[in-house]
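#onboarding

Welcome to the new folks! Below is a worked example of what a typical request in this channel looks like: someone posts a single protein sequence, and someone else replies with the predicted structure as tokens. Don't worry about understanding the tokens yet, we'll cover that in week two.

Example request:
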Amino acid sequence: MNARVFWLFSGSIWGLYAFALALPAENAHRFEGDPVGPVLGYQALLGLWVMPVVVVEGANLALIVGWLMLLSKRPWPVVWCGLIGTLAALTPCFGVLADVGTLGLGYWLWLASIVLLLGGGLWGVRDLASASAVARDR
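Example response:
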């Protein structure tokens, strides 16, 4: 992956993540049956969202580790981190942890940043495969 593509992926990933922190992760959060209003992305990051911390923070950890692997040009670990992070981030959509209808734009942007990491890893694998094919043809 050349530097321009790396910075395009990095800027997009962290740009989406920054917007996700400022927007609601959940629109109409309820605590013990009482509505308490929206939970912003940065509040969810700080653990103020009533979700199992292991699941949500696991996705954030996968994003950070995956980006570091992207930085070090190791595409296969990026793909695995992207897959693990995406699955962890999708757990609210399985209906186990939250009502999907209450998830806010911040949640979806956060999820998109992790899926974009997966895309960056796949782009790197594609580059790796094409480089090895060129080397094999010589």
